[in-house]
Write a structure and sequence with these properties.
The protein has 14 helices and 16 strands. The chain is an alpha+beta fold.
């Protein structure tokens, strides 16, 4: 590829003008606006992902690249990702919110083979942060979606698309600078170049392990060999690479950089699903299989163990053969639906709350205004009301011995694990009605038609879900 191709009028070196704007206290932005420029429909998850990787087709992407190999998307549209974020937004977030170093923002530098974090104590102030930037440090914002609605809506749409947690960080790097040492991550990474340029070098994992479960320590330059891909991203370009790919990035001389890293699929593998299912499977198998309750061989510790591998080979082989056979019985007792439910509950605790449009919000408890309640002091849910989940993934039904639990994410904070796991408990006879509501997708369900419940129970169930923000509610007049 020609890394220095001419981008014409779309080429922007944003930071000098940005810093002039900061000093002049200009360039203010509305942090609640749904877009800075014309962008994707953030309410449709599939369309958001298509837009993020366009013009590449999603089917092609998942067949050829997902968890396999990197891909670069060129656009020659410098403002493509500025519908989501830009440097003026970053400046406004720092000025208008109480951010803390190490919690919301990191100041980092990689120089002389050493990565350093230079966070001062206390609150982030924009002038101090930009002073660090001008001195050659990179600024990493850890949770921009907490403060900027378009980023929240991006995360909300993508977590629905992938069915697992999605995160996003922003990285601002001055010209001819690098913030991080070579390393690999435990996530699938989408690099969205918002402003300026950045040179990326990707390397094979030195250990040879594909798709590692955990991120690496920092590598020295002598440990990683030659890059398998070296590419300069221009504003509007995208780079994807799987977890386990070692990477480092530097902004070229004369060009600062702002990019977003969208991350997903952390600990969302087959092994994680099996790990969720094994504890219950072991309990069930031990209860049902008498052989699993039999005592271990006498003095087996005399020939089993890492320091005992040269002891009594015949007994060792018999022990391992029997253990492997019994372990296979345990796996046969895994209830894969229960394991999937446990993964879903973890996702609901990890994810951001759903980002609703103004129209959607108006039909939930979050959009009910004081004057609405004053004009109609009765609860908005009636037998004739229609209800549906605010998002298909927003709740999960799990059974207990004497009750059912509905786990949900609408009360989550807009930062990771800002709240405890959220759930509601209902009597067992509510299970069928809950299944109807939770499996209705985009279809509305009339409260009076909920099955297997008395009229007052139907109102109680629908009202409980509405009051927690789990369902939208409409009347005939709103159809």
């Amino acid at each position: 590829e020609d890394e220095d191709e001419d981008e014409g009028e779309d080429e922007i070196n944003v930071f000098p003008s940005l810093l002039q704007d900061i000093r002049a206290e200009a360039g203010r932005v509305d942090l609640q606006a749904d877009a800075v420029l014309k962008g994707p429909d953030l309410s449709c998850p599939a369309d958001v992902f298509k837009w993020m990787i366009a013009p590449m087709d999603p089917a092609t992407f998942f067949e050829k690249h997902w968890e396999k190999k990197p891909v670069v998307v060129r656009r020659q549209k410098a403002k493509y990702y500025q519908t989501l974020f830009n440097s003026h937004v970053l400046d406004a977030i720092m000025r208008e919110n109480h951010l803390k170093y190490g919690v919301n923002l990191d100041v980092v530098r990689y120089e002389g083979g050493e990565r350093r974090t230079l966070n001062p104590d206390g609150r982030v102030t924009a002038p101090v942060a930009w002073d660090f930037f001008q001195s050659g440090c990179s600024l990493r914002m850890l949770n921009p979606h907490t403060y900027h609605r378009p980023m929240w809506r991006l995360v909300s749409a993508l977590q629905e698309y992938f069915g697992c947690m999605v995160g996003v960080n922003t990285y601002s790097t001055p010209q001819a600078a690098q913030g991080f040492a070579p390393h690999y991550d435990d996530i699938e990474a989408f690099i969205l170049q918002v402003e300026g340029k950045k040179c990326w070098r990707l390397y094979d994992n030195p250990s040879g392990q594909a798709l590692p479960r955990f991120s690496s320590e920092n590598f020295g330059q002598g440990e990683i060999g030659k890059p398998v891909l070296e590419v300069t991203l221009h504003a509007g370009d995208m780079l994807y690479f799987p977890r386990g790919i070692v990477h480092q990035a530097v902004s070229p001389p004369g060009h600062s950089s702002l990019h977003l890293t969208v991350s997903t699929y952390q600990l969302n593998a087959w092994g994680d699903l099996i790990a969720k299912g094994l504890p219950q499977a072991l309990e069930l198998a031990t209860d049902e299989e008498a052989e699993l309750r039999q005592g271990l061989p006498l003095n087996f510790i005399n020939y089993m163990g890492l320091a005992k591998q040269d002891q009594d080979e015949k007994k060792r082989q018999a022990f391992v053969k029997r253990a492997e056979r019994l372990a296979a019985k345990v796996v046969q007792h895994i209830n894969w639906d229960v394991a999937a439910d446990q993964m879903a509950v973890k996702f609901l605790h990890d994810c951001m709350p759903p980002a609703l449009s103004d129209r959607e919000m108006a039909m939930t408890v979050f959009g009910q205004r004081l004057q609405d309640r004053a004009a109609n002091p009765h609860h908005p849910v009636t037998p004739l009301s229609d209800i549906r989940l605010v998002r298909p993934y927003a709740a999960r039904l799990l059974g207990q011995e004497e009750s059912v639990q509905v786990y949900y994410c609408t009360d989550n904070a807009k930062f990771y694990h800002g709240e405890e796991e959220q759930s509601l408990s209902f009597p067992l006879n509510f299970a069928e009605a809950l299944e109807v509501i939770l499996n209705s997708g985009d279809e509305w369900v009339t409260v009076s038609l909920l099955p297997e419940l008395q009229p007052e129970e139907k109102i109680m169930l629908a009202s409980s879900l509405y009051d927690r923000g789990l369902v939208s509610c409409r009347t005939d007049a709103e159809e």
